Amino acid sequence: IGPPGPVMSVLGDKIAANILAQTAQVPSIPWSGDGLTAELTSEGTIPQDVFDKAMVRTVDEAIAAAAKIGYPVMLKASEGGGGKGIRMSDSEEELRTNFEQVSNEVPGSPMFMMQLCRNARHLEVQIVGDEHGNAIALNGRDCSTQRRFQKIFEEGPPTIAPEATFHEMERAAQRLTQSIGYVGAGTVEYLYNADTNKFFFLELNPRLQVEHPVTEGLTQVNLPATQLQVAMGIPLNRIPQIRRFYGRTDENAADTIDFMTEDYRPITNHVIAARITAENPDEGFKPTSGRIERVKFQSTPNVWGYFSVGAQGGIHEFADSQFGHVFASGDTREAARKALVLALKELEARGEIRNPVEYLVQLLETPEFKENTIDTSWLDTLIREKLVQVKLDNDTVVMHAAVYRAWVYVKNEIKKCEDQLRKGQTGGGLDVGALCIFPIEITYQGVKYSFVVKRLAPDTFAFEINDQSIELKVREQPDESLLVTLGSSVRQVTGQEEPLGLRVIIDGATALLPNVFDPSELRSDVTGKVVRYLQEPGNEVAKGEPYIELEAMKMIMQLSATESGKISHELSPGSIIKAGDLLASLELADPSRVAKLEPFSGTLMAGRQDRDLVVDRPAMGFQKLGLVLDGYIHEPEPLVAMLFDTEDLSEILERVNFLLKNYIDVEENFGRDGLASGLLSILRRDKKNVTKPLQQAIAHNELKRRNRAVLSLLRRLGTLSDVNPGLEIPSDLVSTITRLKDLSGKKKDYGEVKISANDLLLSYQLPNFDARL
To answer: Which are the catalytic amino acids?
Structure first.
């Protein structure tokens, strides 16, 4: 399948392909091989002497070629591709550095130089050639949205070029295809300047590219199937889908089609595609690697997508960063754009990797993309100047990061306690107290936020900071994301603790809360390999100056020093690294200038909330007193007052009886033998169920607060009898109070409760208050 070996060989080399394009009279941009033409040798290669004239072998040759062509220039590896082995240089200094990088990215490849075409669009023509000398153009694609010379959006048809100009581009691509005897599907790529309406040959990709479904959506021609039929020797004019695309009603006829003079039917729709990559848009689309927990995507009639990884899959550091592709179709470009925006908003890829999905949505919504005024440097400019950002205010990030850490902490602590109980470990190592009140620290943007977290219910927390208390609810979804209700807002939150910090995703927008590292430590933020150090040990390196080159996911990248100082290497070239690894150390030039963390002293705006209106105060008091007796953190006395704020005395007595029984059912397990022995007794009765004994242990741990609730209830019961002469106390409640009086246990634990219960029982035996008067 595909072109003959010699043709594949020559097209796999960008220098040879450019010479062939010039030979076929396809316009070329100024480059180091300007004007060179050649016929293929009998071995199917460019004559070596012609090939050599287009190469730049050394830095000095590259500098000389750049002087002739004019800066800015593109240095390319002839055997590179997919954004690898290509660098733009604006000066001789940059060119010297980039020469080394391109050499490392595609080792052993010949290199050449091209003039950088400013304000250019990247347009390409989909071609197919057969072994009978036919060549067709199946319209094309606009791939101008790129970062680091790698495509991120592809769309078709290319509406930026006038129809006549694009038709000329198609014919030039067909001439090139025929002239070299190309067989199979391929892509002829051009740079197009909309201001001058001129185009220049870039390269011929001798393969089916990942964005081929864009063309399929426009032409209804199945390109992999066409590849196979061409490989079987079937002429293009006998392939049914090709015949239909060229307006032939009889799909099975054998009449010839002059593809160089006849036009295909008009294109009536638009398709836009987005590449889904494992890259971090907040760090200039730096590649990431790691495990993927889940990918959620739902195709619709207008949108479909595919992914190369599934749940519990992953992307390793030696792979390409792309793992998915989403295609949207519409009657117009705007309709396709809107469909893609909606699809990306619904897409979710969760795990250790980063992905730019929310960033892509922002790009699609920019005026430049909507109005189609972009060029190939547009996205790199946005990234470099951080002009497009998914904005989250600091308070929202801090608050929801704290919620995520608190939820994970409680979940892990509960699991640890349950595991201990399953093993019969009920001693001092069981720290149930840490489940209800615990500290959480968040560091963000140079500020440290120190929260005290109190659990108010299984799904409710109070975050206290300074003089502020922020109450919110958390519900965990089946996919382990959290729905956080704060006041009237509900947000979906997921998180991932990474070597460099906490990554939290709030309603699809990502924020990284870095761990606090020693500023003298220079650490990796990617997984990959050390290529070389750019500074010798002992050299002075300035803040922001590159000090190392790393290879990650087939890309060479530089890391810059975060502070100024004298550098020491911690690894050697070739070392395999992961995110968080120490690469180098600094002897800081001025330790006093290093930024210090400031404690937060203000009020969190994200925590301001309207007070809930309590419609039924007694019911609210009863509910929250139940939580107090379950070990959660509320002040009991105001809740008792709420419970008694009703004229329905029978309801009060029934609710008090229920609450007192709750208290007794827990304390009868622990009063005599203490926590450890009490837990063992419960576990002997039901070895499989560790949830109930843990809940009772949590409740018993808050005995002082529970005692305050019970004492307050008993006092209000006594008052209730005094102000309501003749009130009949139910026998069941009297029995419950008697159980309170008879509780076994230490005096310091239950003495006051037992005395109050006994006094109340004695008061019930006296005549009523009026009679005593």
So the answer is: 207
